[in-house]
Amino acid sequence: MLPIETIIPFLSASILLGLAPGPxxxxxxxxxxxxxxxxxxxxxxxLCTGLIVHTxxxxxxxxxxxxxxxLAFTLLKFIGAAYLVYLAYQALRxxxxxxxxxxxxxxxxxxxxxxxxxxxxxxPKVSIFFLAFLPQFADPVRGSISLQxxxxxxxxxxxxxxxxxxxxxxxxxxxxxxxxxxxxxxxLNKIAGTVFIGLAIKLAxxxx
Length: 208
Description:
208 residues; 9 helices; globular
């Protein structure tokens, strides 16, 4: 359904976005540093469970917009592009964050899993981001838009598990590194900002 020339750039962008410092990977990093790598992996699974909900909602909603309304499609893509520019602005201006070492220790993995789900589902920016991000890699010529978006969402979740899982395994080392090095965080923020700007341009110039 998805050609390799779509899968490779999509996975590459997803991995870069996952590496950019943000609330989710900072939370995974903190939990794995304080409670061990298993805690970080449990949180990762919880966050990705939330992504399934967002992916399904976007796949069902965006498919209808693609198929029925040129005006809605145009409004959506420019709103999405504007939001991506906003994310780029925030990423490029973001200051390095210090890891908070005062996080409460949670040994109940079920609570960690549920916290990951709740953190993701209750963040409306995830849905808005998916609305801006996923449709750029879908093409009506290749068949069902809904199915393509679900597949893309699955690939994004796979990239998230890969990146966040690595962060969880290397939590102690990465936690110390990020706490000491503002330069690394600044570089990752600039990469994320550049990716967002490129996606905004691509989305704004997309034809229905």
